[in-house]
DNA sequence: ACCTAATTGCGAAAGATTCGCACTTACTCA
DNA sequence: TGAGTAAGTGCGAATCTTTCGCAATTAGGT
């Protein structure tokens, strides 16, 4: 018996669209649904945008991808990896910096102690100004 | 000469709509444009939603209000006050906790040292689980 | 191969925000 | 004080993003 495909292991049907959505997320790093659709269309031109949305949601439900909000609006997706990271995003130029989660433990610890709040730094990025953008306002 | 109205001081024209939008933001605490519109309509039923959007933007430009993103989507507005605060928001129940900015200084300091990143905790909320929602998942 | 439920494509709907433009109004200053 | 002018408003339509309903297709179990 061959080892089952990772999608099948999660109890999902293996469709070309689903596989392509997952690999698009993985290769793009952090991508909007529209980005993902565009990438998938390179090998599967007919894919519908709603199929992309639905698969992103499905893949997130089984823990293969995650979404985060980098700026003012919508979601961007990235592969769920072993190493968690927080997102820093420059509100000027949009650059994205990934920070090992340990870097934030002092904050999360004190929010827990003082407010009983369990911080999830994956979901919403931390906004601010990158070094370059801070220097030349 | 009477002291000029605060809106006039900022170089803005004083219209009933604008004044009402500002006072709605102040009294509501944290509110969506729709919330603001609803409040304003209590005394000025005819106000148009696009007038609300435009005034929120204008008021933000002159520093009287600020917007922040509490959840997955749109903006909520609050009055720009002397005391800065970070926003904690529960991704389960939506409760909002305001945290004095000092509470976060260890994090912002280390992000600055390690990444040259100037954190703005006003713009994007910190996501997580409140105490209640963490206990009963 | 066959059956069934999951998945897809499609078009429409919904929700949020922005825009163009003609009309109104707050302020300037003669 | 009363034009004149530019800022502000209302209205409707346009955009943009995300979601839905439904009929047609297809993956996986038997
Ligand atoms: Mn924003
Ligand atoms: Mn989200
Ligand atoms: Zn930058
Ligand atoms: Zn909660």
Question: Explain this structure to me?
Answer:
The structure is a homodimer of 137-residue chains. With 137 residues, chain A is an alpha+beta fold. Helix content of chain A is 40%, strand content 18%. The first copy, chain A, contains six helices and six strands, in the order ααααββββαββα. Chain A has a three-stranded mixed β-sheet with strand order 4-3-6. In chain A, strands 1-2 form a two-stranded antiparallel sheet. In chain A, strand 3 and strand 4 form a beta hairpin. The longest helix of chain A has 13 residues, at 16-28. The first copy, chain A, is globular. Strand 6 (126-129) of chain A pairs antiparallel with strand 5 of chain B. The complex binds manganese (II) ion (2 copies) and zinc ion (2 copies). One manganese (II) ion (MN) binds at residues 67, 69, 75, 123 of chain A. The structure holds a DNA duplex (30 and 30 nucleotides). Chains A, B: Keywords: DNA-binding, Repressor, Transcription, Transcription regulation, Zinc. Chains A, B: Belongs to the Fur family. Chains A, B: GO terms for molecular function: DNA-binding transcription factor activity; transcription cis-regulatory region binding; zinc ion binding. Chains A, B: It holds the Pfam family FUR.
């Amino acid at each position: 018996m061959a080892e089952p495909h990772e999608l099948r292991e999660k109890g999902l049907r293996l469709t070309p669209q689903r596989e392509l959505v997952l690999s698009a997320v993985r290769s793009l790093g952090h991508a909007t649904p529209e980005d993902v659709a565009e990438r998938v269309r390179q090998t599967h031109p007919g894919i519908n945008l709603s199929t992309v949305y639905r698969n992103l949601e499905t893949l997130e439900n089984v823990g293969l991808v995650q979404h985060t909000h980098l700026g003012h609006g919508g979601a961007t997706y990235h592969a769920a990896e072993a190493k968690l990271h927080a997102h820093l995003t420059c509100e000027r130029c949009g650059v994205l910096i990934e920070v090992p989660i340990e870097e934030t433990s002092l904050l999360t610890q004190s929010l827990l102690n003082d407010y009983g709040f369990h911080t999830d730094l994956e979901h919403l990025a931390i906004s601010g100004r990158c070094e370059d953008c801070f220097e030349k306002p």
